[in-house]
Design a protein that fits this description.
Elements: H1 2-6, H2 15-18, H3 25-37, H4 42-68, H5 83-94, H6 96-107, H7 117-138, H8 164-196, H9 201-211, H10 218-251, H11 263-289, H12 298-328, H13 332-344, H14 348-360, H15 368-371, H16 374-401, H17 416-439, H18 445-466
Helix pairs in contact: 4-17, 5-7, 5-11, 5-16, 6-7, 6-10, 6-11, 7-8, 7-11, 7-17, 8-9, 8-10, 10-11, 11-12, 11-16, 12-13, 13-14, 14-16
């Protein structure tokens, strides 16, 4: 039995796969808090400066839009939805991996989520913040955005609750609120650890304020576990519901290429696909430069690549079914959209780039060498996010640019303002993420300690059983 255990390095109870076995509580504290207390290096400052520069483009783009109106965007007739909704759907999709890793894997007691959940939760928050900007600006008069909420208006004007755009408002605001609560509750024990190891009174006061008086008593842990589990239960249906509602923006219309019942599950699979890819994109350089290889191991990365492979196959199936139904239904408009406009039309290059990134690229993860190769998985994760952005572009622009009436067809070209706002949201995301890495433990210390203790007990029990 001892030989059998030795030949299964991926056994779920093998400590060395998820946490390096030489660590104790003290060394884990030092390892996981080191990047918070040490001065940031030149690399961090360079990335932060680059992100702030991109954030400046967002300020310029948004200011110019508010001053001149959304006519400065490339939107036209018939392409009334363009970069704003493309980027909205893309950012919301990226935010899905955090909730899935944190909530669903927690409920299913998957131990490999422990070291990566905080990265993913932070990514969710920042991605949803970026997503929320686009529909707000898209309304044309964002200062009237409160009309979308059912506040007690003296005019008796109420939102149109049958509109999927109003559903979006409730879905996104709920998702952001629950995700923020879930992230913050998980942070409380680690904020207390930062408070207790602070060197200055200012640090101790700030971290102590956010730690909410945490002392690590039995009562505190009991309440913490209940709150964390309840929030996980609340977050789980949001993974499915939020992107399902986003897909309704398209599926409830009659446009060819949009009017499809497969959109809700297909959008959810695509969201998890792009979200996990973004986690890989961020976590691979972070684990190297923050010295987290002992707690974010190759096992974690390989498991995430398996999820990317599985969801990539679901996305590929969605593409296949769209084309099959367009042929099988014998609807000439659907057939034109999928087989002529998208594959050979003015945006054919974007379409085939989407196929290359989303259909072909994930299949390299069938091979273990690719699943465990850091350079390959990092490049593949970037390709997947490019492909998912191209997918949103194809879905929105091709269906609108050539619909039922050839005389109303038009070509969409983004302007410098479109690009500025998009690149600016990347800067906003990067700025927030770098600040998160500087001031907050990137890995949940209390959960890693708990996992290590549990795995050591299990390994000890297994060794006694083998003897």
């Amino acid at each position: 039995m001892a030989e059998t255990a030795a030949h299964h390095p991926l056994d779920p109870l093998e400590p060395r796969d998820l946490v390096a076995p030489h660590h104790d509580d003290k060394s884990l504290n030092e390892t996981l808090l080191d990047h918070v207390w040490r001065k940031p290096g030149k690399g961090w400052f360079m990335l932060f400066g680059l992100s702030l520069s991109a954030l400046g483009l967002l300020v310029i783009g948004v200011t110019y839009t508010l001053a001149r109106g959304i006519g400065v965007w490339g939107n036209n007739q018939p392409v009334g939805w363009a970069f704003d909704i493309i980027n909205f759907v893309w950012w919301v999709g990226i935010g899905h991996a955090g909730t899935l890793i944190s909530a669903i894997l927690l409920l299913f007691q998957q131990k490999w989520r422990t070291s990566i959940n905080r990265f993913a939760e932070a990514m969710t928050l920042f991605a949803v913040m970026c997503a929320g900007l686009f529909p707000l600006l898209h309304t044309g008069r964002p200062w009237f955005a409160f009309w979308l909420f059912p506040y007690p208006s003296t005019l008796g004007a109420w939102p149109q609750f049958r509109s999927p755009l109003v559903w979006d408002v409730f879905a996104i605001s709920t998702y952001l609120t629950v995700s923020a609560l879930f992230w913050f509750v998980g942070l409380i024990p680690d904020l207390a650890a930062l408070r207790d190891s602070s060197k200055t009174k200012l640090q101790r006061t700030i971290y102590g304020l956010f730690a909410l008086g945490w002392r690590g008593s039995g009562r505190h842990w009991h309440n913490y576990k209940i709150a964390y589990l309840l929030l996980a239960g609340l977050s789980t249906p949001l993974v499915v519901s939020v992107h399902t509602i986003v897909s309704f923006d398209f599926a409830v219309s009659l446009l060819p290429g949009w009017h499809a019942t497969i959109f809700p599950p297909y959008f959810v699979a695509g969201a998890v696909f792009s979200g996990f890819a973004m986690v890989i994109t961020l976590i691979v350089p972070a684990r190297k430069y923050l010295g987290l290889r002992d707690v974010i191991t190759d096992r974690h990365l390989e498991n995430m690549n398996k999820v990317i492979l599985a969801t990539g196959l679901l996305v590929s199936y969605g593409y296949l079914m769209e084309h099959f139904i367009a042929w099988y239904s014998q609807n000439q408009y659907e057939f034109w959209t999928f087989y002529v406009n998208r594959a050979t039309g003015p945006y054919a290059g974007v379409y085939w780039l989407m196929i290359a990134c989303n259909v072909i690229t994930p299949n390299i993860f069938w091979f273990r060498k690719c699943r465990t190769s850091i350079p390959i998985m990092w490049v593949a994760s970037i390709a997947v996010n490019i492909g998912m952005w191209c997918e949103r572009f194809i879905i929105i622009v091709t269906s609108l640019s050539q619909d039922f009436l050839p005389s109303s067809w038009g070509i969409y070209t983004p302007t410098w303002v479109d690009w500025s706002i998009y690149v600016g949201t990347l800067g906003l995301f990067g700025t927030l993420f770098l600040l998160f890495l500087k001031f907050v433990p990137a890995v949940a210390i209390s959960e890693v300690k708990e996992l290590q203790l549990e795995l050591k007990h299990a390994a000890h029990h297994n060794s006694h059983g083998a003897h």
